[in-house]
Amino acid sequence: MRFMLGEVDNQFGAALHLALLRGPWNSEIQMMTIRIGFASWQILTPELQDQFKRAIYNQAHWRFAPQKAQLELLVKAFNRPELACLLEATGPKACPPA
After folding, report:
1. Is this structure's pTM higher than 0.85?
2. Whole-angstrom Cα distance, residue 14 to residue 51?
3. Residue 40 three-state SS
4. How far apart are CA 98 and CA 17, in angstroms?
5. Taking a C-beta distance cutoff of 8 angstroms, is the pair 97, 58 a contact?
């Protein structure tokens, strides 16, 4: 809601951080949070960007409910081709987060 109102501040970042920490086993929460992260990527701190990279990678490769197809759509929709490598687990195009 805060993002939609243009209220992007430290509290917004803290809320995203908590959502990423608390929702790794709930793909709906993770995907909603990741979508917000894509939409606000350019204003996120480097630390929060790193958290999102890990979340994207984990959701793409989660063995119980991989979300790779949805993440591919988000990468294209938000024009973030530099994050596409997170969707690959191995190979020359893969770039697992640090």
Report:
1. no
2. 12
3. coil
4. 17
5. no
H or E element in which residue 95 lies = none
- 75: tokens are 């990468």
Q: What is the largest CA-CA distance in the chain?
A: 41
> Both tokens of residue 41?
């990527």
Where would I find the H helices in the chain?
A: 10-22, 27-39, 46-61, 68-77
Q: Where are the domains of the chain?
A: 10-87
The tens digit of pLDDT for each residue in 25-83 reads 778 888 889 999 999 898 888 999 999 999 999 888 887 777 889 999 999 999 999 99
What lies within 8 Å, CB to CB, of 34 at 6+ separation is: 52, 55, 56, 59, 71, 74
Spatial CB neighbours of 80, under 8 Å, sequence gap ≥ 6: 38, 41, 74
